[in-house]
Amino acid sequence: MKHRTPLTAAALSAALTVALAAGFLLALSGPAQADSATSAPARPALTVKRTIAQTATWPLTLSATGSIAPWQEVVIGAEIGGQRLAELRVDVGDRVKKGQLLARLSPGTLEADLAAGRAALLEAEASARESRQTAERVKTLQGSEALSPQAIDQAVAAEAAGQARVAAAKARVQADELRLAYTQVKAPDDGVISARIATPGALVQPGQELFRLQRQGRLEWRAEVPGAELAPLKPGQLVRLQPSGAPAVEGRVRRVAPAVDAQTRNGLVYVDLKPGEALRAGLFARGDFVLGERPALTLPQTAVLLRDGFSYVFRIEGSQVSQTKVEVGRREGSRVEIRQGLQAGAAVVEAGVGFLADGDTVRIAP
Asked: 125: how many CB neighbours lie within 10 A of its CB?
């Protein structure tokens, strides 16, 4: 039989020695770690720049949205039918003058009809001259027994019929000339060709649309404004407009619609725009109607922090900052209006407010 008692006693002795050593080391390291935690450095102070809330006079505006459209758009169509489109002189985007030739239709038989009508007019005029001369001779014999009253009346009636035939022939010639002139499609006013529907060689019909013309190249902004806010808008007021994808422009109110849409409860305000190469009909635009001026307490937009759906600024109080809730209003350039929550002359952090918290210690940059 084997004996294990000496080995077991030795193992227990070794384990006891290791435990005592570990406890001794833990006792020595505990105070050192506590001192290390106590002496951890405090959060460093951020360096910030200070700005002062200032009062300025800002324009009082009313914002709206809408689309840019032609001031007036003219549909240019064919006055006659049955003729082929022989030539196109303009294309979309071309600027044209009043009376400028836009397209030409094939005259076909219109020239021959006009020539025949003029020949018929000459024949009618010759017949009318003969009838007039006969009537003048007959009138000299009136009251004598050379001619009967019936013959005299017939000669006078023949003269009147001749004059009527001349008038009818002149009317036919004028109609043929007008139809021939209609083969020349001309611009009714100065402007810009906004659409071209015509196709060379096509057989046109009366009234068929060939072109669309923006009269005088003028554009307007048709702003949709709630009916309750239409009252302060008057013709001549300044409007600052920002079209999508184009530089900002200015305009003037031309007309305020007298009625409000029953579905949207909005009314249209027509604003004349200054011409610009970047403006296009159909663009969406946002604009501000300048109604007057009003004092405003302003700060740089970088001083306002948007957090949890509210606006805040960080007031500087000695070496610490205090988070203050404010209500913002109009924006002008890089500054924003503070409507509530701050007084004029208050010192706040100008930028970097997203890195601050209420009560943080800061260092003011010189």
From this structure: 16
Cα separation, 219 vs 215, in Å, equals 9
How far apart CA 304 and CA 340 sit, in angstroms, is 13
Task: Please state, in angstroms and rounded to a whole number, the distance separating the CA atoms of residues 206 and 290.
Answer: 48
Rounded distance between C-alpha atoms, residue 244 and residue 241, angstroms: 10
Please report, as a single letter, which amino acid is at residue 27: A
- Structure tokens given for 45: 């102070």
Q: How long, in residues, is the chain?
A: 366
- Is pLDDT of 23 > 70? no
Query: Which residues are bridge partners to 326 per DSSP?
Result: 311
- Taking the C-alpha atoms of residue 54 and residue 56, their distance in angstroms, rounded to an integer, is 7
The per-residue pLDDT for 365 is 85
Alpha-carbon span 270 to 222, nearest angstrom: 5
Buried b (16+ CB within 10 A) or exposed e, 246-267: beebebebeebbeebeeeeebb
Report the predicted TM-score, pTM, of the whole model to 2 decimal places.
0.62
CA distance 356 to 324: 12
Contact 275, 233 (CB under 8 A): no
Ramachandran area for residue 21 (φ above 0: left; ψ -120 to 50: alpha; else beta): alpha
Which region, left, alpha or beta, applies to residue 247 given φ > 0 means left and ψ of -120 to 50 means alpha?
Answer: beta
55: its two tokens: 């009062």
pLDDT of residue 244: 87
Identify the DSSP state of 228: G
| Share of residues in the chain with pLDDT > 90 (%) | 51
| Res 318: pLDDT | 87
